[in-house]
């Protein structure tokens, strides 16, 4: 699959287009221009490296939303064996935006759950673009409590612009479901490792991200509201989204400095979408290390550490 270039990557796209044209010419056997291709490729690689070492918060937001980034199902396929999906909240129905189940992670039984956005029009509609409804968060509660009952570590993969804002969700108790999902994560007597793999938006993200260790992919974003939403409130226009992203400190680097997250997982040059397999394995290594650091702790110490971690946020 060819890479979809973002707006700020246009110079890179133009170079890559030229390289592809030259490769087609070489394939036709008309002339050998390998040296020229190598020269242009080196220039493209340098431009890509220079661009991604100085991304603005708004540009990182665009990378975090890239449609070709790995999603929940890709991480499950790449890192977990014997995945047994569990469905339904035992009250209303099943929500496809939040998925989870039992799995084997590098020789250890775990419960894995997270947001699934989908990768094409049909799957995005089926998964509601990763925006969970109340039944999704109540399913998450059920799975967290099930893991706690069986003493299984919990791994959550967060990637959502926020919980579904529709009136039907409000009628079915969206706020209460999100609050209780957050409470369930905080109350679990087993290790909880959360990873923001794309967007971490508002309470819809925190509901699955209240872990002992919170990791973030290098180009992921995590905030109380989207930059567009913040700009609409403060400046009455979404055109100020770039300013809002800068002010809100949405990047992994800012949040690590503010002690909101515990670790940053490096991504391949140009973002996780350019080398999904490499990004998935890097996250797997970080999760494995986080789980190892939490193993052997008592349920009460895990709860107390989690509670202290979140209560300390924002204190001066």
Characterization of this structure:
This protein is an alpha/beta fold and 316 residues long. It has 14 helices and eight strands. It has helices at residues 10-27, 34-52, 57-64, 72-79, 121-126, 134-150, 167-171, 174-187, 202-209, 227-234, 241-248, 252-257, 276-294, 299-311; strands spanning 80-85, 98-105, 108-115, 154-160, 192-201, 213-217, 221-223, 263-265. Strands 1, 2, 3, 4, 5, 6, 7 and 8 form an eight-stranded mixed beta sheet that branches. The radius of gyration is 21 Å and the shape is globular. 41% of the residues are buried. The model has no long low-confidence stretch (mean pLDDT 93).
Counting DSSP H or I runs of 4 or more residues, the number of helices is: 14
Amino- and carboxy-terminal Cα gap: 48 Å
Supply the helix-strand structural class: alpha/beta
Q: Estimate what percentage of residues fall within beta strands.
A: 15-25%
Largest sheet: 8 strands, mixed
The count of β-strands is: 8
Low-confidence stretches: none
Based on Cα principal axes, name the global outline.
globular
Order of helices and strands: HHHHEEEHHEHHEHEEHHHEHH
Query: Helical residue percent?
Result: 40-55%
Q: Quick check: average pLDDT?
A: 93
CA gyration radius, whole angstroms:
21 Å
């Amino acid at each position: 699959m060819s890479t979809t270039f973002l707006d700020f990557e246009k110079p890179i796209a133009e170079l890559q287009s030229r390289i592809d044209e030259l490769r087609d010419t070489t394939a036709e056997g008309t002339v050998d221009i390998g040296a020229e291709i190598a020269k242009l490729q080196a220039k493209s690689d340098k431009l890509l490296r220079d661009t991604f070492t100085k991304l603005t918060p708004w540009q990182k937001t665009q990378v975090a939303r890239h449609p070709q980034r790995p999603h929940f199902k890709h991480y499950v396929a790449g890192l977990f064996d014997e995945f047994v999906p569990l469905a339904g909240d035992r009250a209303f129905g099943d929500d496809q935006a939040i998925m989870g189940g039992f799995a084997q992670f590098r020789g250890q039984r775990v419960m894995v759950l997270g947001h699934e956005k989908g990768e094409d029009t049909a799957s995005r509609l089926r998964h509601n673009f990763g925006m969970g409804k109340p039944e999704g968060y109540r399913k998450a509660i059920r799975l967290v409590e099930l893991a706690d009952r069986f003493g299984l570590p919990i791994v959550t993969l967060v990637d959502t612009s926020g919980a579904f804002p529709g009136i039907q969700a409000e009628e079915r108790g969206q706020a209460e479901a999100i609050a209780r999902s957050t409470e369930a994560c905080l109350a679990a007597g087993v290790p909880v490792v959360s990873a923001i793999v794309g967007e971490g938006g508002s309470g819809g993200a925190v509901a699955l991200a209240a872990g002992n260790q919170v990791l973030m992919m290098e180009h992921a974003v995590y905030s109380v509201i989207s930059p567009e939403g913040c700009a609409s409130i403060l400046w009455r226009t979404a055109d100020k989204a770039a300013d809002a992203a800068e002010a809100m400190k949405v990047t992994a680097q800012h949040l690590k400095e503010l002690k909101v997250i515990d670790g940053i997982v490096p991504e391949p040059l140009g973002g996780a979408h350019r080398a999904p397999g490499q990004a998935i394995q890097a996250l797997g290594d970080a999760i494995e290390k986080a789980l190892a650091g939490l193993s052997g702790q008592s349920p009460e110490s895990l709860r107390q550490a989690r509670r202290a971690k979140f209560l300390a946020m924002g204190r001066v």
